[in-house]
User: Fold these one by one.
Assistant:
Number 1:
Amino acid sequence: MKHKFFHRYLSAKVLPIWTILLIDVLIIVVSSLLAYALRYDFRSIFLESSTIDKTIVCTVIVNLVFFRIFRTYSNVLRFSSFIDIMRIFVSLTVSYALLMISSVLLSSYMDVRLAPVSVFFMAYIISFAMMSCSRIVVKMFYELLNFDGSHSANVFIYGAKEAGVNIAKALRVNLRNHYRLRGFIADEPELINKVMMGVKVFPNDETLIDVLNDRDVHTIIISPAKMEELKRSDMADRLLAHNIKLMTAPPLSEWSGQTLNRTQLKEIQIEDLLQRNPIEIDIHKVASHLEGKRVMITGAAGSIGSEIIS
């Protein structure tokens, strides 16, 4: 119990939730002051301090309630995603909509003055922009500090559709210290030479080996959707002949809603490329027939021939 409390509120490894909440409250206050300054001028902040004080107090209280309901502060900032931005958007939208309605009703029926609707609307826009940017900046800053390019391998992904793109996203988010995405490989003409996620899509043709060498790529991750095409073509032979490491990831249906981790990336074995079940060979019996003889192997540069040699 004590350990959970410490990790949630006081841990140095993860920014405590009270710190995130405090930052968000400061953003709400600053956005309210900026909205007043933009709507009127900076002198109004001092001339109408009573109205501004009431407005800021009400705005902070209402937003705190909806921050709690939508738990905008509960996630680790460095792992912020589109879902977290949407939580902020919904929370602020509900909060400021309620404040705008309250401002109109209070001024009409109870002669209580809060900020006009225009000020609340501007504060809403500024708050959303600042809170969203704070998540993005923290995420980018954390990734910049923790990126270790010296131990990451340059990789291509074979497959530029849904499965391949999801693998690329996982590399960028979870595995950026291990793999650096340098390009995609595609068979589809409509995708070739396009740019996806900041890298180019290259054709699967005779120029592929030269492209890999130019970009110092020695590993290709095969999309699960491309495994059957890999088995039917001579692509694996060409790549293995040039000492290109082939890896693959499980199908998207097996990710269970989680992002890909390093242990799920498996090196492709020769048995994975066979169009049949592996044949169990009695190595000792074969050795007894070949012992002391000169043997010539045809196709030794290919994936199967190289396995026979080894």
Number 2:
Amino acid sequence: MNAQIKALLASYGRSVLGAGLALYLAGVPLEDLLYSLLAALVPVALRYVNPKDPAFGRTLPPVEEIAEALKDVKVVKAPTKKAPAKAAETKPATKKAPAPKK
């Protein structure tokens, strides 16, 4: 387990301890104490998502590394769509000769 994961878990533990202890001392039901476990995850997740957080925020790779990776990418142009076919012209029906009268 690397240092960043350990720091995340320690931060989550402190959040759980604070939220759970506050609710326990307030005398809330057990179900609400369990929801506090989920609520304690929010501050830790916010710190993880923040790229400017120096402790354990997500960091992007250096620009040079991205530029080098993009050198090998081959751009493929998408095929153009063909125009829909024209509808076939219908010829008017020919009239039949009237039947001879008897």
